[in-house]
Design goal:
Blueprint lengths: L3 H14 L44 H14 L8 H16 L3 H11 L18 H4 L3 H10 L7 H14 L13 H9 L12 H16 L2 H18 L17 H17 L7 H18 L19 H17 L4 H16 L11 E2 L8 H5 L3 E2 L3 H15 L3
Antiparallel strand pairs: 1-2
Helix pairs in contact: 2-3, 2-16, 3-4, 3-6, 3-16, 6-7, 6-9, 7-9, 9-10, 9-11, 10-12, 11-12, 11-13, 13-14, 13-16
């Protein structure tokens, strides 16, 4: 897949160079975008080591690329009903704004959400179902509550709304609500401490766990962390295979890229927060490391992972590759993974994903929204989309992971 951004920049540079005087070469790191008319030849940046996560080729800086993607998101119109891809991109843009101390971007992202609060002018856009894909909406108000705590702009309604969604996720299904399993089986799972929204799809280990993690981060209430860890261990036992990868569901034995990406990102987020002495940490860390070892094996020479991970003939898929890059970057920076072994894969993954961001700062080659289905061809035939938030969001997560000082 050709990276169109460098071509666009080169064309602009050639048009302007005749009229612009040459300028002194810029320092290679940190990268500063050239001023309009800059005709300085590009000097490739050589990292100090193959696994370096601080020095980047022109256009691949996480601060630069993340800013463009966050601005792209904040300018997008909201959908009729807020869906999980919007939430994931919102969370990524908010964390990016915090890490880059971009208060203006943060405030614009918050202002977008204010009308969605109960009683707000756009509250009808909020989802309603008792479902992991809807409940995750609580992640955003929790993040806003944490980032504005102690500021004059703090509004307790954000924490209240996030808490409503987190508590509802472990509460009883309302009359008429349809769970993923028969009522008697849901009752058994609830007795084991699992959410009634449990369905044992690989996607859930981001959708479901992020809300409870945010609840713990925002409130400090251990119940959210414990229920979350218990849920993740149940999914690990149910879906992870001996090779380290995950089936989409127990009855769908395929290693779908973005599905596994949700689990990889969910485990990385969980391990960021789970205390060293938590009883579930060893199990989750073991599952995470087993998966990361598999990702090393299946990463393509181009730095990408495939739509079906273990099918080398499958097309390179950007959303999963961004999620895997996020998980690897986070593990290397925390020391859960050996930097010499995994750092080069993390770097290679980020640079590869950055090449799938076009001149409009839309992520290309994003698998469309995908249900589970017991057919390999079904996954191989999924459409490839550009600008789909399934792809925009994890690139923002990966940019934040690179900027985060762990």
């Amino acid at each position: 897949m050709m990276n169109l951004r460098p071509l666009a920049l080169l064309s602009a540079s050639l048009l302007l160079s005749a009229a612009a005087p040459a300028q002194a070469p810029a320092s290679p790191a940190p990268y500063t975008p050239p001023a309009p008319g800059d005709s300085t030849p590009y000097q490739p940046t050589v990292p100090p080591s193959p696994g370096d996560l601080t020095v980047w080729p022109r256009g691949d800086s996480p601060a630069e690329l993340g800013k463009h993607l966050a601005e792209k998101f904040v300018a997008m119109p909201l959908p009729r009903v807020i869906a999980y891809p919007d939430v994931c991109a919102w969370y990524g843009a908010l964390t990016f704004a915090q890490l880059t101390h971009d208060d203006t971007l943060r405030d614009r992202l918050i202002a977008r959400f204010v009308p969605l609060l109960p009683g707000g002018a756009e509250a009808n856009r909020m989802p309603q179902r008792h479902h992991v894909d809807d409940s995750i909406v609580g992640v955003v108000p929790f993040e806003i509550a944490m980032q504005t705590k102690g500021l004059p702009s703090y509004d307790p309604r954000f924490l209240q709304l996030g808490t409503f969604w987190a508590d509802r996720q472990w509460g009883p299904l309302p009359p008429g609500a349809q769970g993923a399993f028969p009522p008697d089986l849901i009752a058994q799972m609830v007795q084991q401490g699992l959410s009634p929204e449990t369905r044992f799809w690989v996607d859930d280990m981001y959708m479901l766990t992020m809300l409870q993690l945010q609840a713990y981060r925002a409130t400090g209430d251990r119940k959210y962390l414990d229920r979350d860890a218990n849920e993740m261990v149940a999914y690990l036992d149910k879906l992870q295979q001996p090779n380290g990868l995950f089936y989409h569901a127990p009855d769908v034995p395929f290693f779908w890229g973005r599905g596994d990406g949700w689990f990889a990102a969910g485990m990385a987020e969980m391990l960021r927060t789970l205390p060293a002495d938590h009883p579930a940490r060893p199990r989750i860390l073991a599952g995470y490391r087993l998966m990361m070892a598999a990702l090393l094996k299946y990463q393509g020479a181009d730095g990408m992972w495939r739509q079906l991970i273990d099918h080398p003939e499958a097309w390179p898929e950007s959303s999963s590759s961004a999620m895997f890059s996020f998980a690897l970057i986070t593990g290397v920076k925390h020391g859960w993974l050996d930097a010499a072994t995994y750092g080069p894969a993390a770097r290679k993954g980020w640079i590869a994903v950055a090449g799938y961001v076009d001149q409009n700062y839309d992520v290309t080659q994003v698998c469309q929204g995908t249900n589970k289905f017991d057919s390999a061809q079904y996954y191989l035939d999924r459409k490839r989309e550009t600008g789909n938030l399934h792809g925009q969001a994890p690139v923002l997560w990966a940019a934040s992971a690179l900027l985060r000082d762990e």
